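The record is kept unedited without comment:

——
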Amino acid sequence: MRPPLLFVHGASCDARVWRHGFQGYFEKQGWECESMHLPGHGTGFTDPNLHDLGLDDYAEAVAQIVITLSAPPVIIGHSMGGYLAQRHVLEGKPASGIVLLGSVPPHGMAWEMLHFMMHHPMLALRMEVTPGVGGLEDRLVRAREMLMTEDTPEEIVIQVADILQPESSRALRDMGLHSLPRREIPVPLMVAIGMKDRLIRAESGIAMARDYGVETHQYDEMAHMLQMESGWEKVAFDVLQFLEEHFSLANG
């Protein structure tokens, strides 16, 4: 039996990032799919308890969803969701495999944010001056300049901007201060990166894949939002190939 797929979003987003085509791509191929809102996300307003939530709370939410599924899933995690997927399997919790899209590397975000501030100081200053994600204009700037390439169609930028929401300062601090143990991933693993990613350096994704002993799937004309940007279909196709290689009906 093929395992279900569990889609886990990144920081300042919710499960809608998967529902503009990416999740549906796999559903049409007959895969059982589940996408989740992490605690405090997807509520349509700022959760008053958001900043009390940390990575431990998010990791527990992932673990609780996993045990409700028909079998240990392949966890497809984007950005912070990829960090949570790594943590989940490194802690010995059940999963059939993991797919990391533009994932936070196991060393966390401290070096990534330092690099971002050095190379994009004005955008970093804007983030500091405007707490949370600001109004629509601010979200549009962040979506295009921080998360996607400059030539991303406006309608996609608007879709991403509409999803952006505040993130827990505690969870962000956790990702900055804590690293994952340097151990082998015990399940099939795929790593995908956008070579124009401004938020998480391509070099970090390549190094992560090398340390885990797998090849990197590189997308030269894509940035951070691999599941929504122009070209997401190619990413989805490559993920499908990975799934069919490791979890085809013939193998199961």
Q: What stands out?
A: The chain has a mean pLDDT of 89. The longest helix spans residues 232-247. The chain has ten helices and six strands. The CA atoms of residues 106 and 118 lie 21 Å apart.
